[in-house]
Amino acid sequence: MRTTPVRLVTMIAEGLLEDRLLQEIQKLGARGYTCSAVHGHGTRGISESFWEGAQVKIETLVSPETAERILDHLVAHYFHDYAVIAYVSVVETVRGEKYL
Hints:
2 helices; Alpha-Beta Plaits; single chain; alpha+beta; four-stranded antiparallel β-sheet
């Protein structure tokens, strides 16, 4: 079986950002995503928006270039004012053409 290396970008953010982030990552080149409601505790503690809804975990499989665009966008527009974390993993996927 052939696999293709792609980047798995994972973002965990305040739930109120979900729709906005989903629109933006698609504009930045993501072809799809998976979302789930999550909860946790980090260096900022529990944000006030937590009580308005759970945090959201967004995952997307993308090319290295798209991963970089997404991370740059998050740094420029979210990290300073919102409880957002992001990380990238190199993963192998079947049917890689769907994501690149």
